[in-house]
Amino acid sequence: MRSNRLTVLRGTALVAGLSLALAACGGGDDDKGDKGGGSGGQSLKGVNLELAAVWTGAEGAGMKRVLSAFERKTGATVKLTPTGDSTATFLQTKIQGGAPPDIAMLPQQGVIAEFAKKNWIKPLSPEVQQAVQANYAKVWQDFGTVDGKLYGVYFKSGNKSLVWYRAKAFDDAGVQPPTDWAGFAKTVQTLSDAGTTPLAIAGGDGWTLTDWFENVYASQAGVDKYRQLSKHEIKWTDPSVKEALKTLAQVWGKPTNMAGGASGAQSLLMTQAVTSVFGDSPKAAMVSGADVVSATIGGETKSKVGTDAKVFPFPKVGAQPPLVGAGDAAVMLKDNKGSQELMKFLASPESAAEWAKAGGYISPNKNVDLASYPDDIQRANAKAVIDSGDNFLFDMSDLYPAAFGGTKGSGEWKRLQDFLKNPSSVDATAAGLEADATKAMK
């Protein structure tokens, strides 16, 4: 795996992005030249394509906007097929059954490498490569490259170092958004003392717990350790891992800190966690989640982002606050004209702007006009990702093989779910993580 994936953005960049410096969030690239939007006309009339992705609900609706724009542009028909939580498992089954989709969105960078080495995905044409080179920072090109060949177009990215909060709960308790872990722990206690459950933790979705761990670990252990652990160059039994687990236990270890207690958190899904904070009958004050939370707030509740629902950077544990992000890459499982044209379209600013207008989405495409995003918070988050350039910190669990970092009910997801249930099991959790990582990396 490439070492240049993992560099922590310094705290000033993240804080500046979330303080909504509106003057800096102006329009995008003024170049009106061809940025790789597809051939146009009705060149694909009668062509049927299938794109598989994990997205449903608001995210699925956003992707359908993109595909509808492609259909209008080319005359093709594109079916969006949900993969369920484990995209890699879904695709493996389809491939082995001889019925893969034309294109799939892979949420784990490690899976791109796995699939490329098995010849399950196809390299991109020179034309698509040119579109990627024109519209993406080098780091995003590297993320989609395996053994010198470009396979992936990163269509969606995200800022996972955010905590969303209900403004009224903070106002009633007389607290302000914290900047460090000590302040965060104090805020949790103050909210609890005021009679408000502090957190909705979506333990039913194991990936949310990996985000908690990565944010703590990136800030506490530092970038070098993060790099080493992401490539399994150090063991998960390293003292730095245990220290991060102990830090999480400071908040996770008290059942009254989370909606439904430890048992309730075990089954709470991310959408449910968001609505439990911002819905009509709120049950908690905060939820840690990526920028896409804004779409759930807008689609599932009556709360308004920026007024009822606000956000602060994940609190720093060490010297610098973290910025952990992720991305979903489009890859081709079938090499045909339709697939290549759709890949070229997905690499264009035009396609990304379609979803950006709907909200709940950030594109790593540097030529997307920031005015496409519907509110200041989303514009600031998008700008933070673009401004990070080659200094983007990729989600650690997505860098591992899916068997460890991306499979429901096993690997890191399951180990951290068990740890949420029993936060005193630091040594056992670390040993289990190491055993699972070792097995997955073979």
Automatic annotation (TrEMBL):
InterPro entries: Bact_solute-bd_prot1, SBP
Pfam families per the UniProt record, alphabetical: SBP_bac_1 (PF01547)
Keyword Signal annotated: yes
Signal peptide limits: 1-23
Keyword set includes Transport: yes
Membrane-traversing stretches: none
Assigned keywords, A-Z: Signal, Transport
Record family assignment: Belongs to the bacterial solute-binding protein 1 family.
Protein known as: Carbohydrate ABC transporter substrate-binding protein
Organism: Actinomadura barringtoniae
Species classification: Bacteria, Bacillati, Actinomycetota, Actinomycetes, Streptosporangiales
